[in-house]
Design goal:
The chain is α/β, with parallel strands linked by helices. The chain has eight helices and ten strands.
């Protein structure tokens, strides 16, 4: 069967991921998420810490088992990685982790680690003409070719993250997943690395799922945005539209909190508290205890995403 060129590269359907604790009910870190990423598209996934973003990223990469739902990459089901070697078809998914200091092996030279990805691409059947060298990849991410002979600890955090990106690109991914890839970097490096990931993904025609709590950066690099709260997607749509006219009260609060040049941009007073414990989520709409627009019934009925891309009873038919 010929693949459908219009089909999403990544499809996440009704995904549930839960963790078990002795003597306690399962904790649903991801509680019924559906999401798509197309080739050449950058999707930004945003939300406060503890909302399940990183758990979703790990599930997409096969690093976490699913309790319910389905994930498919280019038509192939994504199964949890249980052995040392994953299915070749799934090596087209590559992840850039949050910690640039822990994601690279300090005992191996940079070039050797990047070469691992190149060998993965070769094993998947990429032609020799499409393969590259560690030195070429380092140059593409803005580092000198000579960096291949050095060790990770000889570089700054921003440089290490560029090396991690080069290693991921070596496998010629069709889907790149960035799990908070800029949060451990200083402010001067954050936008540089985020912009680099977008340009490299778009240049190669790969999809990029970029996970971050920094909405100001996501606004600049993402084509579409998905807002996550306590394991659920509460709003999604083209980035420019969501930014110009946020509909969900939580999205509006997040955008209001983005720092402004004049020093404004703080968490609104009407949005108190933190994300609740996912082991004991509120009944009904998960956001209702913090929502300034909650009304009768919000504590009983959990809203679903409607055609307009928002999960809120304010917009129910």
């Amino acid at each position: 069967m010929t693949p459908d060129p219009t089909a999403p590269l990544l499809s996440v359907d009704d995904l549930v991921v839960q963790y078990h604790r002795p003597g306690a009910p399962p904790t649903r870190a991801v509680a019924g998420v559906s999401l798509q990423v197309r080739a050449g598209e950058v999707v930004g996934l945003v939300g406060e810490s503890g909302c399940g973003k990183s758990t979703l990223a790990r599930a997409v990469c096969g690093l976490t088992a699913l309790a319910e739902g389905r994930i498919t990459y280019d038509g192939t089901p994504v199964r949890p990685l249980r052995v040392r070697r994953r299915e070749l078809a799934l090596t087209g998914i590559q992840m850039v982790f949050q910690d640039p200091y822990g994601s690279l092996n300090p005992r191996r030279r940079v070039g050797s680690q990047i070469a691992d990805g190149i060998r993965t691409a070769a094993g998947r059947g990429e032609s020799a003409a499409e393969l590259t060298t560690p030195e070429d990849l380092l140059t593409r991410v803005g580092l000198p070719a000579s960096a291949a002979e050095r060790y990770p600890q000889e570089f700054s955090g921003g440089q290490r993250q560029r090396i991690a990106i080069a290693r991921a690109l070596g496998a010629r991914p069709r889907l790149l997943v960035g799990d908070e890839p800029i949060s451990a970097l200083d402010a001067s490096a954050q936008l540089q690395v985020a912009t680099l990931m977008r340009s490299l993904a778009v240049e190669s025609g790969a999809g990029l799922l970029f996970i971050s709590h920094d909405l100001s950066v996501v606004r600049l690099i993402a084509d579409r945005i998905a807002v996550m709260y306590l394991g659920r997607i509460v709003e999604t749509g083209p980035t420019a539209e969501v930014w110009a006219d946020p509909r969900h009260p939580y999205t509006r609060a997040l955008l209001a909190a983005v720092p402004k040049p004049d020093g404004a941009g703080v968490l609104p007073a009407e949005l108190p508290g933190d994300v609740p414990d996912p082991a004991d989520p509120p009944s009904g709409c998960r956001f209702h205890p913090r929502c300034p627009q909650a009304f009768d019934g919000c504590d009983r009925e959990e809203p679903q995403l409607i055609a307009g891309g928002v999960a809120c009873r304010l917009y129910a038919a």
